[in-house]
Amino acid sequence: MTATEATAASRTATIRVRGEVRRPAEFAMADLWALPQHEREVAFTCRRSGPRHHRFTGPLLLDVLRRAEPVFGSGQRKDRLRYVISLRATDEHRVVLAWAEIDPEFGNCAILLGLTRDGVRLDDRGPHLVVPGDVCGARNVSGIADVRVHADLSD
Question: Taking the model in full, what pTM does it have?
Answer without folding.
Answer: 0.87
